[in-house]
Amino acid sequence: MKWNLKDIISINDFSREDIECVLFNAKKMKSLSREKKSKILKNKVVASLFFEPSTRTRLSFETAIQNLGARVVGFADGGVSSQKKGETLSDSISTVENYVDGIVMRHPIEGAARRASEVSLVPIINGGDGANQHPTQTLLDLFTIKEEFNSIDGIKIALVGDLKYGRTVHSLALALNKFKKCKIFFVAPEQLKMPQEIMEKLTNVKVVETENLEEIVPKVDIIYSTRIQKERFPDEIEYNKVKDAYVITPNTIKDAKSSMRIMHPLPRVNELSQELDGTKHALYFKQAGNGIPVREALLKLLLEGKK
Amino acid sequence: MSNAMKEYDKEKDVVRLNPISNGTVIDHLPPATGPTIIRMLKLSCKEPIMMAVNIDSKKKGKKDLIFIEGKELNEKEVQKLGLIAQGSTWNIVKGKRVVSKNKIEMPKETTGIIVCSNPKCITNNETLETKFTIANNMGKCHYCEREMNMKDIIKSLE
Ligand SMILES: [Zn+2]
């Protein structure tokens, strides 16, 4: 499998072949022994630059880096270091790239990772740039689907909740558009519907838009639930009208196929009932765990063998 | 419309009628875009400028026309023109003669001329030239991936 990317900035940079290459390598990572894994990036150093805090993403990346035998340097809250002193991003990157073999970064400003990749000679991995991109989340979602259903082609998935502002569901829908014969059910209140400009790009998948979750539950392989945030609504009344409409409980999914699985990017608030946690339908913790092999695969693909 | 203006248009040989000796003629502009283009090109009005608005055109019915003495357009200015007046022409005049005729085309990429509409975009937060790719009448920011329609793009130029 050919691998062409020098940096991981946006899921839009990935061809289907690139995605398959990551998924293939992530699967291999899962089967490697700790011992073997720890030799892959031995003696390498990777910077973990979190200009904005995100504990989950940072822990997942730093675990992956250390599992491969590399060392981590960096900071968890860039607000107190270089940024406050007014240093430009390009200066920060130009300095750090001299110390390390690769850079993982998260930044509140949109386009920051792309900018860093223009400045840096070492590979950049985007761990989130504001509301723009978070490609490793999308890749771990795809890996989870492939692992569970053996194939992404032909999958029937319901994206539920805040489809207007949720970058996770935007990226996932656009990524599924690169596969064959997928069907996406968009389940959201009128105020939080999938933006038109994204719908227009989904030329290679079947799409259904609905506000009614229960009627489509029996038809889908996956329910991908997301959080509906209060601050997206003009007032409390509007929020209260919809906040419970997409809470998933054992009752919501009583007519689901037994193979149906529930995914969620986590953290959840109340949209997924805890009663689901022990059931065969709950895939979300396994999904979160898949962040490790996927990030290991990306680090390996970008850094292995490089001087 | 005055007879003098009509004669400019009927006359095939632009050279003889050109009121400028060295500079640029922007011709076949969509009607009523002339004032926007003068503003957009941020012409200082130190050089003599002549503009004709809504004059008769054989090809287009109506058109605008701008003569700028002592100025040659740079690459960015040509890109700006492409965004607003695709299909027009810009001609370079030297010693009262047109020395080159160029078609104004929609640019595929622009650097440093469109202002990204996303306040959280890095180009609005650090000193950095914007880059946009243009396709299907939409522009996409190279950095934050925000898409802008032509109306908003043109507004951002002014
Ligand atoms: Zn932008």
UniProtKB/TrEMBL annotation, chain B:
Keyword set includes Metal-binding: yes
Record carries keyword Metal-binding: yes
Gene3D superfamilies tied to this protein: Aspartate carbamoyltransferase regulatory subunit, C-terminal domain (2.30.30.20), Aspartate carbamoyltransferase regulatory subunit, N-terminal domain (3.30.70.140)
The entry's keywords: Metal-binding, Pyrimidine biosynthesis, Zinc
SUPFAM superfamilies named among the record's database cross-references: Aspartate carbamoyltransferase, Regulatory-chain, C-terminal domain, Aspartate carbamoyltransferase, Regulatory-chain, N-terminal domain
Single Gene Ontology BP annotation: pyrimidine nucleotide biosynthetic process
Domain Aspartate carbamoyltransferase regulatory subunit N-terminal: 17-104
Domain of life, per lineage: Archaea
A GO CC term attached to the entry: aspartate carbamoyltransferase complex
InterPro entries xrefs: Asp_carbamoyltransf_reg_N, Asp_carbamoylTrfase_reg, Asp_carbamoyltrfase_reg_C, Asp_carbatrfase_reg_C_sf, Asp_carbatrfase_reg_N_sf
Domain Aspartate carbamoyltransferase regulatory subunit C-terminal intervals: 111-153
A GO MF label: metal ion binding
Functional description taken from the UniProt entry: Involved in allosteric regulation of aspartate carbamoyltransferase.
Family of this protein: Belongs to the PyrI family.
Protein name: Aspartate carbamoyltransferase regulatory chain
Species whose genome carries this gene: Candidatus Iainarchaeum sp
